[in-house]
Amino acid sequence: MTTMLKKIFIATLVASLPALAAAADPAPAPAPAPAPAAGAKPAAAAAETPQKSPTAATTESKPSDAAAIRQTTRIGYVDISRIFNETVRGKAVEAKLKGMRDKLQARVDAKRKQLEKLRASLEAKLPTLSQEQRGAKAKEFQKKVEEFQKFGKQLEEDLYTTQEKETKGHSDATEQVAVAYGKANGFAVIVIKKELLYVSDNIDAQDVTDALIKAMDEAARKNK
Predict the structure, then answer these.
(1) Which of 61, 77, 95, 199 has its CA 20 to 30 A from that of 162?
(2) So what's the architecture of 71-222 in CATH?
(3) So what's the pLDDT on residue 220?
(4) Edge to edge, what strands does the sheet with 189-192 contain?
(5) Which phi and psi angles does 119 have, rounded to 5°?
(6) For the chain, what are the domain ranges?
(7) Among 163, 182, 185, 162, residue whose Cα is nearest residue 174
(8) How wide is the angle at C-alpha 167 spanned by C-alphas 161 and 169, nearest 5°?
């Protein structure tokens, strides 16, 4: 069998038995390509220097979108105690609550003095009272004490309710100003300072407490 017939026989066998072809030796080398024209570069040389696509070049020359976002992210933080203690609204809330506390405390003190006076009077009369009378006076005094305790508890609840209402109103006003300031100045988020535990180097973190105090005072003057 000639060499050409052997090649034809092997090619036919490989085509009819794919599994055998996969395990067999590599297929024979293809027929040589036509000679290149004069002055033309060989195909192999052209393949060695592939051209970069425009997309690939753009990807290599520009940083990722995530990196760009990290480099431009701005966050603000505020000292909330200063917002409450130094703003016009915060000072007004504190003055209102202090006035209420003082009035309630004065009422509690007046009731306490009445009880102390009643106790002193009962103690002075005890030697002249019978056992039955002493028991009745003790029950009467105990009832007064219980009434005083209920009175004090009710005043505490009134103060707590007012404090919650005023504090929430102040917090809502602070949030509104923070939202407006953040949007106007390109901040991604504004948080309370004590909740800020760590900031990466590629984050632009700024203390905006003074700016928010100024903005809140301006808003308070406009609402008068």
Answers:
(1) 77
(2) 2-Layer Sandwich (3.30)
(3) 87
(4) 189-192, 74-78, 204-207
(5) -65, -45
(6) 71-222
(7) 182
(8) 105
Query: What pTM value is reported for the model?
Result: 0.60
Taking residues 165-175, what's their average pLDDT? Answer: 95
Long-range contacts formed by 208-212: CB under 8 A, 24+ apart: 208/76, 208/77, 208/78, 208/178, 208/181, 209/77, 209/78, 209/79, 209/82, 209/83, 211/181, 212/78, 212/83, 212/174, 212/177, 212/178, 212/181
Report the distance separating Cα 164 and Cα 100, nearest Å. Answer: 13
CB 90 within 8 A of CB 220: no
pLDDT in tens, 131-141: 999 999 899 99
Q: Which residue has the tokens 């003057």?
A: 221
